[in-house]
Amino acid sequence: MTGRILVLSLAATIAAGANSPQVSPVSTAPLPSNASEGAAIFARECSKCHGPDGKGLAEFGTPDFTDPKVQSRLTDARIVATIKNGKKGTLMPAWSKKLSAREILLIAAFVRSLNAAKEASPDSSSGVEPGAYEAGDDVLFSLPTGRRLDRHGFYVNFTHRFAYDPAFSGTARGGALSGLEGFSLSSFGFRYGVSERFSVSIYRSPTFIARPIQLMLAYNFASEQDGAPLNAAVRFSTEGQNNFSRNFTHNIEVIVSRSIGSRAQLYVVPTLSLNSHRLFSPNSFRSRSIPNMPGFNTFSTGAGGVLDVRPTVAVLAEVIPTFVNGRPLGIHRPAFGFGIQKKIWRHAFTFGFTNSPGTTVSQRSGTRAAFLNNPSADTFKGLVIGFNLTRQIY
Ligand code: HEC
What we know:
- A hairpin with a 4-residue loop joins strand 2 and strand 3 (198-204).
- The chain folds into two domains: 3-124, Cytochrome Bc1 Complex, Chain D, domain 2, CATH 1.10.760; 154-392, Beta Barrel (Porin), CATH 2.40.160.40.
- It has seven helices and 13 strands.
- The chain is α+β, with helices and mostly antiparallel strands and 394 residues long.
- A twelve-stranded antiparallel beta barrel has the order 1-2-3-4-5-6-7-8-9-11-12-13.
- The protein is elongated and about 65 Å long.
- Heme C is lined by residues 45-46, 48-50, 60-63, 74, 78-79, 82-83, 87, 90-93, 95, 107, 111.
- Residues 45-46, 48-50, 60-63, 74, 78-79, 82-83, 87, 90-93, 95, 107, 111 line the site of heme C.
């Protein structure tokens, strides 16, 4: 069945079904035959609960729209009514105020086109790449994923690094919960999707890593979800220590990622930091504990990967070597980290280990060796616990 016939027959069904109490009459004005328009709306509004390929997500209990049994259980009218009115007592929201009647018909036609039993037709091809992986957080552990945000989506990001107490070495680690009882560098920030491609963010790290505030603009110029072979984003940011008053660093990052199937993704992040500063830990809250410091232009390239081992659980690892001017910043070994991530609707929690106390763009490539002035603190023995939390507030 072609997309046009599908949409027309759907419109006819709706017109005929106007006596059904759930379905309010829908205009049957000429409909576009472009099924991929519905696919694009599905990708934007529905895929976070129904999966990018419409196969359903375990954590929401959403049905598999590619399953012929699910399709035969649903009528066209019921699909449209569910999209318009939502489903009481479930997470399925009502869309009649957010989407036009035409858009609802387009998505309904797209949902129908997912039926695996239907004969393959060339123009039902959707804009949704079934293979694309969607990162659960804006970072892997500290390395950015470059994921796109929802347009007008508002996100909060927390990071905690228990930078002073190694998790596994030293005495009585068990008693101190492997360092989790120790002192945490707790940073937080907000990120806002101005459009689907363009986002802004503000982020602050605490006093004991020199109190930087980081302002950032990010632009996603390619997305696998639009059929591109890669995801690519560029980000510009400025960090200023002591609450944006001194030791400014300007960063340019390019974030390139590629999915391997729908369960894994690889990342490469070349980063230029102009006027970057050595990590150190101020010994008091006073401003003069954060002196003016010399800056160095550094270049690092982070690399990482993530793999979903269960539908909502991912494992991830990253390494961020500094190739230019690492020495003056006291970086002897690359920063690295690894962790495990749990994804629940609009949230992700990541727990892991790292040798880096930094989470801003320029600080993330620094290691504990510089921070604590202890050359051996950035080896496996010096790994510390950290965790990240992100939440999309709306
Ligand atoms: C916040 C999560 C969420 C979003 C966003 C969402 N859905 Fe759902 N949807 C659900 C859940 C949960 C169910 C399963 C409800 C149930 O238990 O029957 C569902 C069920 C459905 C059903 C099946 C209804 C039935 O009668 O079995 C359709 C069709 C559907 N959604 C379409 C969509 C479309 C189209 C969009 C985007 C415009 C969308 N949903 C967005 C959570 C969501």
